[in-house]
């Protein structure tokens, strides 16, 4: 076995690889840019080597710099993680020439299947059903428009070397095809160093289901079930689960066998993923093969007990697979939610800054099924599992230079319903402050009826949140539970305040039992009767809820029970109450005395400032270009400027007709959130 492995990546996947390498007794080497000098993967590795400036195209995807780090460290193998150089055949060639093992497939397999254009041609030649499209090189935007018309709108423009939603655009007409072609090329060049684009038919109402394969260099290949990845935003996966709630055993077997046959046809070794579009009749169409470890691999590990990183390392070392297809058992259900540094209340735009608070829920181990390289065959230990793959820590920085993913929160349980419920509690328990993040949105998805029923397609987010996400209106039953809990919490705080020293004699403050709780447009009059073990909160309609829990003023997470049912929520103090985040809702909860509530209803509401004549920067990023000049008349929907943040280009458009009076930025400028870019008359 190798003595030392270099991980040519960063963030959570680098940390993930380091964990398995340490378990196997292998030393690890991290590489880092200027922006990652204090990163978690650098701290976890046995040694770390600096490779350049923050931008990935000057550090993490520069082959010469990685090779120099390999030589300097004396590493015998390199694990590329995902993204960056993981599907770069030239990188694999450079390692082979240096006598260093690549923890991934052979160069030939990367060239054939890692390239999205070539892989589709090979799949067609092998008789695999593929989506209609044009796989050749596209010269310019005019040719892209011509091809799009031949294929038939809507079409998908995709980066040949792409992944992770980068370099992908859907076009519904000529204008979008022309615009999308250029943006896709730019993103592809910046993210992968390869700006080739291909076009395929965009299948409406599809499900995105992928098969995990594992092959060795001795001719053995198996599939480890499927992953449902249909919940996506801008073609970037947000929620994944294994198995799929849609597939039956016959379809799973057909997709799995076809995936293994395709992998073996190109001499594939290591872990890989074959992606399919599946329609409502369970017809499946090959999309592409990812010749690397997938972001969402943990859900497969949780239902099979197979450590995929360990298997990749063993295969790279020339070992045979010790697992046969008959050994693979799919046990229970696993769900993964991707926590992104994206603000759902600002159109999911990237957010950067310092993590002033980062406290994931407690991890609970399940399994493993595979111990000492021997198949155990039993279900994971315990009824539930919680796993959080992350590459950040409290006090660390979220950089504008890299992907906005903070963590991958996973839960496992014997059934899908139990795994979802465990995920709901885990999301509510996750504390993140200092940046915008998508925790509220993830909670909303976990409660959405379509997701709960398992009937989602890749259009789920677009259809269910067409105007973006602005929070959740909770059912009255949930609001009553929160009202009861916060009323009891407020009473605890009031009692504590009566005990402050320095009071005047005979001026003791009394804490009453009658309160009014206002939350999300509901007003509840309640009476609280406390006892040593909690409190009973009675509403004015006579219903009563029993509240218990270990919360003291100042705690930022409330873990309570209401009528013996767990209730976990993030809590902050505001004047006259609390700010509460629970189940996708971000709420101000005001707890007042009856007289205070009466007066509060007479108070005028503060109006928001008028920004209708300003174009504000919606995210921290760099100005790519300004498309207008002072004095220009602009029309609704017209391009105003392009901002690049976290490897994605974002085009800002005019919301209404107007005339440009002032421009405050230029190409290359670095902007903060709400900086004024353009002013209108």
Automatic annotation (TrEMBL):
Known cofactor(s): biotin
Against InterPro entries, the record matches this protein to: ATP-grasp (IPR011761), BC-like_N (IPR005481), Biotin_BS (IPR001882), Biotin_carboxylase_complex (IPR050856), Biotin_carboxylation_dom (IPR011764), Biotin_COase_C (IPR005482), Biotin_lipoyl (IPR000089), CPAse_ATP-bd (IPR005479)
Which range is the signal sequence, renumbered to this chain? none
Q: In which pathway does it act?
A: Metabolic intermediate metabolism; propanoyl-CoA degradation; succinyl-CoA from propanoyl-CoA: step 1/3
The record's catalysed reaction(s) read:
propanoyl-CoA + hydrogencarbonate + ATP = (S)-methylmalonyl-CoA + ADP + phosphate + H(+)
The residue ranges crossing the membrane are none
Q: Which EC main class describes this enzyme? A: ligase
Its EC number is 6.4.1.3
**Domain called Biotin carboxylation: residue spans:** 1-466
Q: What is this protein called?
A: propionyl-CoA carboxylase
The source organism is: Sulfitobacter litoralis
